[in-house]
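Human:
Class, as today's exercise, you are to examine the entry below, and be ready to discuss the fold:
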Amino acid sequence: MGTDTVNATGTRVRSHDSKAAEGIHPATWRALTGAAADVAGSWPAASHGTSSTGDVRTTVTVLADAVRRVATGGAADIAGLPPFVPTRRILERMRCAFLDHVAAIDGTVNPGEVVAVLRAMEQVLDALDDDAAHRFASRLTGQDAQQLVVEMAHDMRSPLGSILILAERLRAGAGGELSPIQQRQLGLVYSAAFGLSTLAGDVIELARGGTTLVDTEPMPFSVSDVLQSIMDILRPMAEEKRLVMKATGPSADVRIGHPSALNRVLLNLATNAIKFTNTGSVIVNTRELDRSRLEFSVQDTGRGIPEHVMGSLFEAFRQRQTPGDYAFSSAGLGLSICQKLIGAMGGELQVATELEKGTRFYFTLDLPQPDTI
């Protein structure tokens, strides 16, 4: 009779029914399947950027089968591995768990079989290294993943910067007079390129901690100039969706603060508002609470934010639970950066939302007028 065991996905199988198990003592196989089940049940998928716990279970099952095949004289078959899962680290944890299971078995495991299984794991690792897709995925999930992403973000910014400069020069008339439709099309090109450049900047900023203020020291600046620059960039996007977009500044315009960080935050929030608003308006507003404090808000008439999203709204690299879920970007970077920058300026990003009626992001900053310094 065969021995009942459970594979990594929880399926009960019998050792004599599996060709991959031929030649392996039942105790050794139990140690291997037990190790696979341990890893499948304990691997923190969300914290390692994997698609789902299901992908982890699939990965563990494919790896365990590949190890068994190699240990019994076959070839490693890793074709069923899902992409973008930290496969090497999962296999390394399986190796440690396998040794723990072997140590817990009292004298029934053949040392030669244990060595054969460990050698099989090394061969499966070699097979992973030979596979270009998993080699790339390994770097995305390995220790140098952050450096790779930052390098890619830097590579994106250079050509995007050229597009921005060229589009701005053409809009200013460097190539001759433009028709209204050409002006609008160039505005859309500029807005799209600026959005991509901002996303690349968010990645780099997050790698640095997300709290870097370009203006290291507070300086005098015009709030209306900040608002106008945001309107110039985003108005073509709003017009393309037939949205009303407005911005209102304070009566005391010149303030002391960090204009670059404020610009970045309001631009991110307003871009997000346009993205999730199909009809109505997007309003960027400032309200004077007293002589120094200003409340900034971005109000839209969009679809609102679902309750199940609110708990992770400001998390970077959060996963969408369903396609189309609310997220500043597919990685969720923008809101995380906004929260960090506002915190660095001494404020706190807050949100009020109602489904199908709209969302309001707001924060308060202490921005003294120059004559009060």
Q: What stands out?
A: The radius of gyration is 28 Å. The chain has eleven helices and nine strands.
